[in-house]
Amino acid sequence: MSETASGPGAARVPLLTIDELTVALPPDGDRAEAVSRISFDIAPGETLCLVGESGSGKSVAGQAIMGMLPHALPVTGGTIRFDGAQMPPQRHHDFRTIRSARIAMIFQDAGASLNPVRTIGSQLAEVLAVHGVPRSRRRPRVLEVLHDVALPEPERIARSYPHQLSGGQAQRAVIAAALLLRPGLLIADEPTTALDVTTQAEILTLIARLQREHNLAVLFVTHDFGVVAQIADRVAVMQQGVLVESGQARDVLRNPQHPYTRKLIAAVSPAPRILEHDEETPILQARDVNLVYRSGFLGNRKALHAVKDVTLDIARGRTVAVVGESGSGKSSLARCLLRLEDIDSGSIRFKEEEIADLTGAPLRRLRRSIQVVLQDPFSALNPRQTVLSAVAEGPIIHGTPPAQARVKAAELLDLVGLSAQAGGRYPQEFSGGQRQRICIARALALEPELLIADEAVSALDVSIQAQILDLFADLQSRFGFAILFITHDLAVARAIADDILVMRAGEIVEHGPASRVFAAPEHPYTQALLAAAPGLDLFQKGSAA
Does pTM surpass 0.85? Predict the structure, then answer.
C-alpha cells in the first residue's frame, strides 16, 4: 500500500477527479443508469479499489475514464478531470494522446488483450510507434519495461508469441505494454481474477512495486475484498451503479457500514465446512494413476508427466477438493477419472468395478453415474438451445421419454433456484451465476453418484460463488452424491471440502481432512499456497493496515 498519498500529514492533490458521473443504459436495460452520480478521486502514489459484483458499474466507470464507452452508454451527467483539466467527450480523437501516454488500462483476460499471431516485442513496439517514439529507441524501451515487470530473459520474451507464455507471464506482458509510455494513472480491471493464488500474489506485488517506483495512481477494479485487503489505500464500493460506501481501506475492512459491503467481505472468508456424516466405503478409488502427454516426432519426442502415481478415495456424500496452481495436473486428473483420457498405468475403480479399460456400451453406462460441471458456464451451453432442452438432453440420449425428461428438467431448474419461465429462454439471457446453476441442473439430470466440478466457481463473483457453493452443499445433502471439487482457490476449498488433496507438478504432496490441512499444513508447497491466498486472513490484514 502507498504511504505517500495517505500517510499522516501528507499533502494530497488528486490526479483524477470524478464528480457526479452518470452513464445511461439502453432503454431495455435492467435499470435506467449504468452508474448514477458517482464521485471519487485518486492521488499520485495511491491505490483506490473500486469494488462490486458483475453489473455494479465499476468497469463502466473505468471505460468512461479512458473515453471508451460505446454509443449505447452515453454520459448524461457529471465531469471527469485529469491533472486539473476536463477530459474530452467519449471517443473523441483527443483521447489518442491520453491513452497509454497519460492513462493506461489492463484487463482481466491477458490472452484476449494480445494478438496471437504477433510476437510480444512487436506488439509493444507498435504502442511506441503509434505515439511517435523513434525506431532506434523502441527496442531498448521494450526490453527495459519487460525487465521492469520481472519477466525472465526479456530478449526471449520479446521474440515469443502469447501462446508460449504462462497466464502470469502474459499478464506481466500486458502490464509492460501499459507502462511503456510512463503513464500517471493505471486502471487495472480485474487483472488477477483468472490467475491461481501464487500467480495472483506475484501480480499484486508487482503492481505495488511499480506503483512505488513510478509514483503511479492506481484504480484497481475488483469484486474481491481479499485483494482489497492486500493492496488498497482507499475503497469505493458500488452496487447497481450507485456508490454505497467509501473510505480508507482499514476503516472499511474493520467496520463496514453498508449491508452490501458486509456481504462482500463475508463472502471472501466463508465458514469452513462442518462434517455431518461418517466415513463410508469409497465409491471411487484411484491407485497409482499415471498420465503422460507425448508430442513431437522421432528424435524430437517430448513427454509431460501430467499425473504421477496419484492415489485417492472418494466416499458417497463426501467432498474431496483437489487444490493446486495452474499446470499442477488437477484437470488432467479429472479427465482420467471421467475416462476422457486413457491412463498409462494404475487403477480406477468405481463401485468396485475397474473402469480404466471400459469401452463401448459399458463406458456409456458409466457416463450416467459420473457427471461434470466445468469452469466456464458461458461456453458450456449451446446458445441455440433453450435451457429446458439443454437440461433434458442427457436423459433423452440415455433412453428417457422426452416428455418425462422435460418434466424432470423443469423440476431441476426449480431446484437450483430458477423460475418456471427460465426453461424457455436461451443461455445468453442469463447471468454467469444463473448459467452455472443451469449447468448443475444439467449434470444432476442423469442422477449421478459422483459429480466432478472443475473450477466451477472461479469465473464468478465472490458473493455468487458463495451462493453456488451453498447450492452444491444443499443438493449433496438431498441426493447423497460424492463431489470431486477442483480449484485453485483455497477459500473455496475451505468452504466446501471434507478432505483436501494438494497437487504440484502432477503429484499429491499433501492430503488429509480439510480442518487439519488448513490449521496445520505440513508440506512447504501447501504453506506457500496458504500464504499467497488473499482473503483467508482478511481481517488480520485489514486491522494491520
Answer: no
